[in-house]
Amino acid sequence: MQTSISDSTQVPNHPTDGSQTSPTAEVIQGWIIDYVAQVLEIEPNQVNTQAAFDQYGLDSATAISLICHIEALSGRELSPTLLYDLPSIKVLSQRLAANFSSVVHK
User: Fold this and answer.
1) pLDDT tens-digit profile of 66-83?
2) Whole-angstrom Cα distance, residue 23 to residue 73?
3) Distance between CA atoms of 85 and 5, rounded to whole angstroms?
C-alpha cells in the first residue's frame, strides 16, 4: 500500500485580521475521502464515509499521515489517536467541524 500522497488539495487561506473561519464537516469529509482514495488507489466515490477506518486496512503510519494532512489543511493541531477514537470518516469530520467551530466562536 502506498502511503505517500501528492497533495493536490489547497491549504485554506487564513485571514490575517485575527478572524478565522472553520471548515465545515463536508469540507473535512472531502479532504479525508480524497486522501483515503489516493492511498487505496480507488475512486473517491468508492470510499464509504460510514465504514469504520479499520475496514480500509490503513496501517498506523498512514493513519498518522492522514492526521498530519488534516492538520496542515485546517491549521489546527490534532490528537494522533483520532482515527482510533472516532470510528468513521463521517463521525470524524462532524466532530472536527464542531470542535473547530466552537474554538472559533469562543
Assistant:
1) 999 999 999 999 999 998
2) 9
3) 23
Q: Report helix, strand or coil for 89.
A: helix
Closest CA to 104 of 41, 39, 22, 43: 22
Whole-number Å distance between alpha carbons of 23 and 96: 9
* DSSP for 1-67, written as a single string: --------SPPPPPPSSS------HHHHHHHHHHHHHHHHT--GGG--TTSBGGGGT--HHHHHHHH
Mean pLDDT of 78-91: 92
Total residue length of the chain: 106
Angstrom distance (rounded) from CA 103 to CA 84: 23
- Closest to 87 measured CA to CA, from 43, 56, 65: 56
Strand runs labelled E in the chain: none
pTM of the model: 0.77
